[in-house]
Specification:
The protein has about 140 residues and is α+β, with helices and mostly antiparallel strands. Helices cover about 25% and strands about 50% of the residues. It contains 3 helices and 6 strands, in the order ααββαββββ. Strands 2-1-6-5-4-3 form a 6-stranded mixed sheet. The radius of gyration is 15 Å and the shape is globular. The N and C termini lie far apart (about 35 Å). InterPro entries: NTF2-like_dom_sf, SnoaL-like, Steroid_delta5-4_isomerase. It holds the Pfam family SnoaL_3. This is SnoaL-like domain-containing protein.
Length: about 140
């Protein structure tokens, strides 16, 4: 569940972007997602390749993921925290992601995310996104 409390100004705008982003992921709306990203966004995701630079690279990643899923994606955001000052902000969260593959199998993971935002020309956009999956290392 997303933590909520009264927000004003930049914080309210970023919270609105986050809510729209969450809906777009759950419903696999690539175009809507990309509206909230800077054209030169840098994304480090859990799915290869390690780095995605710019809208087109990120579009390919999203289309690949969404194209391998049947139905909507279960995406639950927990521990979402936002900090902002001036024209920069970042958030971090722990997310529970599940979907059904085209093979009928359920796939899921707990994914940590850190998102950087920048306000340019009066609009907040994601400029950096980093997702990771906790893993145990062998002793």
């Amino acid at each position: 569940m997303v933590e909520t409390y009264p927000a004003h100004g930049g914080e309210a705008a970023i919270r609105a972007i986050h809510a729209a982003w969450l809906d777009a992921v759950r419903n696999k709306k690539v175009g809507t997602l990309l509206e909230h990203y800077d054209p030169d966004v840098v994304v480090f995701d859990v799915m290869p390749p390690t780095e995605h630079r710019g809208h087109e690279a990120y579009r390919r990643l999203l289309e690949g993921w969404f194209g391998q899923t049947a139905g909507p994606i279960h995406f639950e955001v927990t521990q979402w925290h936002l900090m902002h000052a001036g024209d920069l902000a970042f958030s971090h969260s722990v997310n529970i992601v599940r979907n059904t593959g085209l093979d009928g199998q359920t796939h899921g993971a707990t994914v940590r995310a850190t998102v950087g935002y920048r306000k340019t020309q009066g609009r907040w956009r994601v400029v950096h996104e980093h997702a990771s999956v906790p893993m145990k290392l062998a002793p």
